[in-house]
């Protein structure tokens, strides 16, 4: 019997998301390519349709990744994320976002939220914030120290597309600083959301040597014909099965299509459930 699926990168069409630039950024692919139409529930901004789509695809949990970054990508308050988790506590958990332009007050808020049972980590986007930073920038140490104090993983969202949409060059999404960070904090569990695409080879090499790094390629592996996708699959098949995570980057990808494309990527059959469910369930305590 299937265990279900945990979607590690997810932003539901709640009013606070769809009214600002964050949702529009996530809809960049559906609005700018003819081969990625996006989810019907996203276009119609319908929670009822969303749950139907999740159920059809077998997705049991969505992990809402907070975005508190200032700048072109916008953000949404963590209070809205908490309301969503409390309203649909059987479907969503979340990582509150930390605004890297205002680290001290934003981190203080995130620390307060950490005791909430639905809060499972902290989310930052250093390469696409208003002031871009590499992941090992000492200015970010308070965030990492808070995660260590609270026993929570950190999601660091890195992709060339995010950096470019924020007005920066794609080198800000390099995973090389992740290696330095992971070596500096070996007890910190680091989820690299978007998996530093398109630096896929460098990303899996970092994860090979840093056992506290989890690779979450989301749409960059759950999309047919996506460049670099095979690198993530090959790494999981060889050595990274226990630290590869599934995600859709919804609303960018519809759940049914993302799961279908994911399953068609050539994974070793015995690792599929680990990537779709077990790895995330263990990491998040679900």
List descriptors.
alpha/beta; TIM Barrel; 286 residues; 42% helix; four-stranded parallel beta sheet; three-stranded parallel beta sheet; globular
Overview of the structural elements:
The protein starts with a strand and ends with a helix. The protein is built from 14 helices and seven strands. With 286 residues, the protein is an alpha/beta fold. The longest helix is centred in the C-terminal third of the chain and has 13 residues. It has a four-stranded parallel beta sheet. A three-stranded parallel beta sheet has the order 1-2-3.
The total strand number stands at 7
Radius of gyration: 17 Å
Structural class: alpha/beta
How confident is the prediction overall: mean pLDDT?
93
Low-confidence parts lasting 5 or more residues at pLDDT below 50? none
- Measured between the Cα atoms of the first and last residue, the distance is 18 Å
User: Main β-sheet: number of strands, strand sense, barrel status?
Assistant: 4 strands, parallel
How many DSSP helices?
A: 14
The third-level CATH topology is TIM Barrel
Q: Architecture, according to CATH?
A: Alpha-Beta Barrel
CATH class designation: Alpha Beta
CATH superfamily: Metal-dependent hydrolases
Largest beta sheet: strand ordering: 4-5-6-7
Percent helix: 40-55%
Strand content: 5-15%
């Amino acid at each position: 019997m299937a265990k279900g699926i945990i979607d590690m990168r997810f932003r539901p069409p709640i009013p606070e998301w769809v009214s600002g630039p964050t949702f529009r950024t996530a809809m960049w692919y559906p609005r700018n390519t003819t081969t990625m139409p996006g989810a019907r529930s996203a276009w119609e901004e319908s929670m009822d349709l969303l749950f139907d789509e999740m159920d059809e695809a077998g997705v049991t949990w969505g992990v809402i990744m907070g975005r508190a970054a200032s700048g072109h990508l916008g953000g949404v308050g963590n209070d809205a994320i908490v309301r969503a988790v409390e309203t649909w506590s059987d479907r969503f958990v979340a990582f509150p976002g930390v605004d890297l332009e205002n680290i001290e007050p934003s981190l203080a808020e995130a620390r307060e939220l950490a005791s909430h049972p639905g809060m499972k980590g902290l989310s930052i986007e250093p390469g696409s914030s208003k002031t871009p930073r590499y992941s090992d920038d000492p200015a970010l140490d308070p965030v990492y120290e808070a995660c260590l104090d609270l026993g929570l993983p950190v999601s660091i969202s890195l992709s060339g597309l995010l950096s470019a949409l924020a007005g920066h060059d794609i080198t800000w999404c390099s995973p090389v600083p992740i290696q330095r960070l992971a070596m500096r904090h070996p007890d910190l569990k680091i989820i690299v959301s978007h998996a530093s695409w398109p630096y896929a080879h460098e990303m899996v090499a970092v994860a090979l040597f840093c056992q506290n790094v989890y690779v979450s390629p989301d749409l960059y592996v759950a999309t047919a014909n996506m460049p670099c996708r095979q690198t993530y699959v090959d790494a999981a098949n060889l050595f990274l099965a226990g630290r590869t995570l599934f995600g859709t980057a919804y609303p960018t990808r519809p759940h049914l299509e993302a799961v279908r494309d994911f399953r068609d990527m050539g994974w070793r059959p015995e690792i599929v459930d680990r990537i779709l469910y077990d790895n995330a369930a263990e990491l998040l305590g679900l």
